[in-house]
What we know:
alpha+beta, Thrombin, subunit H, 3 domains, six-stranded antiparallel β-sheet, 7 helices, hydrolase, Peptidase_S1_PA
Amino acid sequence: MTSRKTFVAGFTVxxxxxxxxGLCVNAASASPLAFAQMQxxxxxxxxxxxxxxxQSGGGIYLDxxxxxxxxxxxxxxxxxxAAGFATKLVKHSFAALTNAKNSxxxxxxxxxxxxxIDTKNNQVVVKIYDAAxxxxxxxxxxxxxxxxxxxxxxxxxGKLSTYIAxxxxxxxxxxxxxxxxxxxxxxxxxxxxxxxxxxxGGTWSGGDVSGAQVVESDCPGADSGLLTRPNGxxxxxxxxxxxxxxxxxxxxxxxxxxxxxxxxxxxxxxxSVDESVNFDVGVLNHEFGTTAHTDHGxxxxxxxxxxxGLGTLSGGDTVTSYFYPLTLELQSYGLELA
Length: 338
């Protein structure tokens, strides 16, 4: 894979007040990199504010690049607005939503379902697919009902599937996936992809890389796979030339880009975070859901926002694509971005 470096000059760092007032970048005319810079700044500043609110904070989400701070009382609302942010008065704190989501994690053996936190709607969103058995539907519906209005159920057509199929990206002779991020461990160059890909074993190749061996493979639970990179010249950049210099936590409403060997490039929006997705291969934890379109063979491919890497693709359906967070992969394996 040949990578080109992209340099962008003239960025302006905007204050929270300017972001809130919409004085920074017009989303319709902003370049992808400028918009990514705006989102990153909004997320950082809003997160600091909501963290200071403690139990009165309901999390944050993005609306066309602008951060909205959820609050559960007037005191918190005044504090957030004094910091320059638009607010939304909600019923449930982020801590309460997290507890609700964690209670659902105790529901086991329910393939073809998923649940995660939707801060925009101040709920845990529970997805049940047509492919789920009646027993699974009944079990998950009953568990969600106990959470009252802190949860909502969405019935989805079709079937959840992890993406691994024929193609021409990285492959082991039987299965094809996509390279997520070039990384290093202890100075050694390696490649990060999906764990349900590396679970297949074998020797992997793609681009100018050959003879790559599986070093780590975790799936289900996580969905991370690490391959050696015995040769190859790829650096820490997407094949479009966009450099990846950091890893970040996804935020509901965040506009993202993705790459995969089957569907190529594209964009989408983060719709949920900390999602537990019950694929047939088992439960994948801490996933984030997006509206990005992906398909078989895209597994392991990257989601990113400007120069910030977000995660590697696990799978999904025709509506939602799920990614495993890059921050967790780097921490788990002791990696650095190349």
